[in-house]
Design goal:
Elements: E1 4-8, H1 21-30, E2 35-39, H2 40-47, E3 59-63, E4 74-75, H3 76-82, E5 97-102, E6 112-116, H4 119-130, E7 138-141, H5 148-160, E8 164-168, H6 174-183, E9 188-190, H7 193-200, H8 210-213, E10 222-224, H9 232-238
Parallel strand pairs: 1-8, 2-3, 3-4, 7-8, 7-9, 9-10
Antiparallel strand pairs: 5-6
Helix pairs in contact: 4-5
Length: 240
């Protein structure tokens, strides 16, 4: 991985926020999770209450600053600071399991869909042709990393291209999203059709095109979406 991740300081990121401690524990047990990387807030709310039911969980790494001591956890930032600069990477077989993406579990027990290491090749190629990613891009995918798009095309694919990845931990807010695009000088933006429709309807009293014009977005060259056709209003808004 050659890219960089640029993080914006807001509320702790919500990885599928609707999940409570039991659904989180269920997926960890199904995946035989041994290491958990999370924030202090999410650990306290969703892992600590069920940790005694997870005998295979050996390490919990807390990202970001600690406001208090959490027994049984380690600071990922401190570990990274103390680690050697060199990190030899073991070779893997293309068919080896790389990660699991779990289904919602709305029709039964959640099922882990296996993604192998060779899948990264497909992620790399499709990001090049579908998202037009280049090493000098600043890329923002607004999908939650808990969903397949947020992981495959929000993290894995852009890092294989060496692009800078913007990660926003806050909830949707139209004006702040425009601010992120402008401040971080995002060049490629990948988001949902629903979010784009909300952006177009953000300022009905001033007209749908006034808010984007109040931000300087010369760097933004490509907006991508997925899942359903875009309505004409969104297409017109994207050209302003």
């Amino acid at each position: 991985m050659r890219g960089r991740i640029r993080q914006i300081d807001h509320d702790p990121i919500r990885v599928l926020a609707a999940f409570g401690p039991d659904p989180v524990a269920q997926r960890m047990r199904l995946g035989n999770a041994r290491v958990r990387v999370t924030t202090e807030q999410l650990y306290t709310r969703k892992v600590a209450p069920v940790r005694d039911t997870l005998p295979e969980l050996k390490h919990v790494l807390i990202v970001g600053e600690h406001s208090r001591d959490l027994p049984g956890t380690l600071s990922l930032d401190s570990l990274m600071t103390a680690a050697d600069d060199g990190c030899p990477l073991p070779r893997t077989d293309p068919g080896e399991v790389a990660l699991l993406h779990f289904t919602n579990g709305t029709t039964g027990a959640p099922k882990g869909a296996v993604h192998v290491h060779e899948a990264v090749v497909a992620h790399h190629i499709t990001a090049a042709y579908a998202l037009d990613l280049h090493p000098d891009d600043v890329y923002w995918c607004t999908a939650d990393p808990g969903w397949v798009t947020g992981m495959s095309y929000g993290i894995i694919a852009p890092l294989t291209h060496g692009v800078t990845v913007v990660v926003d931990e806050g909830d949707f807010d139209t004006r702040r999203w425009y601010g992120v695009l402008a401040q971080e000088r995002v060049t490629v933006w990948y988001t949902a059709p629903t979010a784009l429709r909300m952006m177009t309807r953000a300022t009905p009293r001033q007209g749908p095109y006034d808010l984007p014009r109040s931000f300087d977005l010369p760097a933004l060259r490509f907006v991508a979406s997925v899942g359903e056709p875009l309505n004409p209003e969104v297409v017109l808004w994207s050209r302003t």
